[in-house]
Design brief:
Layout (H helix, E strand, L loop, with lengths): L2 H12 L11 E5 L2 E4 L4 E4 L2 H4 L8 H13 L10 H13 L4 E5 L2 H18 L7 E5 L8 H6 L3 H4 L9 E4 L4 H7 L4 E6 L2 E2 L5 E2 L2 H14 L2 E5 L14 H4 L5 E4 L10 E5 L20 H16 L2 H22 L3 E7 L2 E6 L5 H10 L2 E2 L1 E3 L3 E4 L7 H16 L6
Parallel strand pairs: 3-15, 5-6, 5-7, 7-10, 10-11
Antiparallel strand pairs: 1-2, 2-3, 4-12, 8-9, 11-12, 13-14, 14-17, 16-17
Bound molecules: pyridoxal-5'-phosphate.
Length: about 400
């Protein structure tokens, strides 16, 4: 039995079975390359599901984490720390937001939005505003509140009762949104690009209409930019493509470049929405995570990664369109910047296809069950994209069909 086989056997014995990982154990990574316990190298164009904004173990990020670990790793939120102040300021400088709250994950950021909305309206004397409007096919996380906002029943199975007061409308259906927002609505939340749902981009009409409806009816508008933020779509935040500003947005995934970090960024209107004692997170905003966040921003600027995401995102979209036109195993492409999806045809077996991609040495993930998601590091090169697309092309030319 090889060392890797041994580790896979142990994993099944000691790890909870809530994941179904590919059958290899990753041990090292640099840039877009990762190595498994048998020494096999893979090209990673999954970007850790939109997390690895600057690639695996970027030397500047690794050094910043090491230096900060040696200087100050954690203080409680009873005390200020320099790194959290610097990172909050950097985020406010780059976005229309005026205050930042730090946490550790996307779900936690969305929980914070839920609590912020309820507490804000409560403190405004509008105590009946406790409900939320979300979109079908959305993904907002797995904790109870975030799960309750998630518009996919498969994730709800066996987990009810969920947080009450959430209704769902079809994504991009402005008439449905118009009908759903009432004087009981605390907030409307959606992703500018539904990512886990299969890479579906919001329409301008929907985004602008949502802003107008929320303003007219006194509801808050929230964007979940956990997967789309921090340059992923070729703008610092995806909302810039729509020229729309929500009252608050959630961030996570790419903002720590692989270090656990989440955030909720709010406009001045909500600056006092969570008064002292109303919300907290032990690790939220700790100096180590915030040093990672600062290093990620530094690398994004130094290496021109937003521009790279825009340019190579357009290149990737073009290459995928070409592939799609040629192959019978695909049924369209969609995306924004370096968050792209290639839709598999109905008769193609998505699980077997992605397993074949992994076996060929390329790391990609599925979104929405039948869409191959390509969300590489923002510092991916054209040569790496070409290399990955050649592997994908060869597999899709003879894609495994459904039994
Ligand atoms: C848009 C969106 N929101 C929220 C989450 C949940 O984030 P986390 O897994 O860090 O809790 C995800 C994760 O995939 C996501 O894509």
């Amino acid at each position: 039995m090889t060392r890797q086989d041994d580790m896979l056997r142990t994993a099944k014995e000691v790890q909870l079975g809530n994941y179904a990982p590919a059958p290899f154990v990753l041990t090292h990574g640099l840039g877009r390359r990762v190595t498994d316990a048998s020494g096999r190298e893979y090209l990673d164009l999954s970007g850790g599901i939109s997390v690895l904004s600057v690639g695996h173990s970027h030397p500047t990020l690794a050094a910043a984490i090491g230096e900060q670990a040696a200087r100050l790793m954690h203080v409680s939120n009873i005390f200020y720390n320099d790194r959290a102040i610097e990172l909050a300021e950097a985020i406010c400088t780059r976005t229309p937001f005026d205050r930042v709250y730090f946490c550790n994950s996307g779900s936690e950021a969305n929980e914070s939005l839920l609590k912020l909305a309820r507490r804000y309206h409560h403190d405004q004397g509008d105590e009946k505003r406790v409900e939320f409007v979300s979109t079908l096919n959305s993904f907002h996380g797995r904790t109870m509140g975030a799960l309750s906002l998630t518009g996919q029943t498969k994730y709800h199975k066996g987990m009810e009762p969920l947080v009450q007061g959430v209704s769902f409308i079809d994504f991009n259906d402005l008439a449905a949104l118009d009908a759903a927002v009432t004087d009981r609505t605390a907030a409307v939340i959606f992703e500018p690009v539904q990512a886990e749902g299969g890479i579906i981009v919001a329409t301008e009409e929907f985004v602008h209409g949502a802003r107008r409806i929320c303003d007219e009816r006194g509801a808050l508008l929230f964007f979940d930019e956990i997967q789309t933020g921090y340059g992923r779509t070729g703008r610092f935040l995806a909302q810039e493509w729509f020229d729309a500003v929500p009252d608050a947005c959630s961030l996570a995934k790419g903002i720590g470049g692989g270090f656990p970090l989440g955030a909720m960024a709010v406009t001045e209107r909500l600056a006092d929405g969570l008064p002292p004692g109303s919300h907290a997170s032990t690790f939220g905003g700790n100096p180590l995570a915030c040093a990672a966040g600062l290093a990620v921003l530094h690398i994004i600027d130094e290496e021109g990664l937003i521009e790279n995401a825009r340019t190579l995102g357009a290149y990737l979209a073009g290459r995928l369109t070409e592939l799609d036109a040629r192959l019978s195993s695909t049924a369209g492409t969609r995306g924004l910047g370096l968050l792209q999806g290639l839709v598999l045809a109905d008769d193609v077996d998505p699980g077997a296809t992605i397993a074949a991609v992994h076996a060929a040495g390329l790391l990609l993930t599925l979104a929405g069950g039948h869409v191959i998601r390509i969300s590489p590091s923002l510092n991916v090169t054209q040569a790496e994209l070409d290399e990955g697309l050649a592997i994908l092309d060869a597999i899709l030319a003879d894609a495994p069909r459904k039994p």
